[in-house]
Amino acid sequence: MQRRHALLAATAALSGFTGCIAPFTSSGFLKEVSVKLWNADDRARTFHLALETEAGMLDWESHHIDAGADELVTIAPDEDVSPVALHGAVEDFAGSVDVLGVDDLDEDYCLQFDFSYLHPTDKRPQLAMIADIECEP
User: Fold this and answer.
1) Coil, strand, or helix at residue 57?
2) Residue 111 belongs to what H/E stretch?
3) Residues sharing a CB contact under 8 Å with residue 75, sequence separation 6 or more, in sequence order
4) Looking at residue 137, what is its pLDDT?
5) Residue 122 has what DSSP assignment?
6) Is the pLDDT of residue 6 over 80?
């Protein structure tokens, strides 16, 4: 199966969230969103996540991650909705990643994100989207 890639834009703000983008339609269905939470710090942290869709914001989820640990979190929308953004917060960092380019997909798809506290290359939190939209088997 040929891998499909979407044009994705990532925006992280040190405080506050960006506004909504216009809704779009797709004949593909968002099956799930996977977020890898990484805590590279030497003490435990609580990460907060929320998926924004064209129908509004899904509930915020909180995940306590031990020092030096990571966890894979899966968000599965209950209905056929188009994703707009993933929002995340940890400590005094708050950011979001806008989801663009999935409106032309004609097959089901999944989205993958990385959310790290003290990213090894930047020494600050980062919330980023992985460009591959193929679902894991």
Assistant:
1) strand
2) strand 109-117
3) 32, 33, 34, 35, 49, 51, 58, 61
4) 62
5) T
6) no
Is the sign of the CA dihedral 112, 131, 110, 79 positive or negative? positive
**51 neighbors 58 (Cβ within 8 angstroms):** yes
14-18, 92-96, 109-113: the lowest-pLDDT one: 14-18
pLDDT tens-digit map of 69-105: 999 999 988 778 889 999 999 999 999 999 887 777 7
Q: Which structure tokens are listed for 53? A: 């869709």
The secondary structure of 66-96 as a DSSP string is -TTEEEEEEE--SS---EEEEEEEETTEEEE
Q: Give residue 76's pLDDT.
A: 87
In angstroms, the CA 108 to CA 105 distance is: 8
The DSSP symbol for 28 reads S
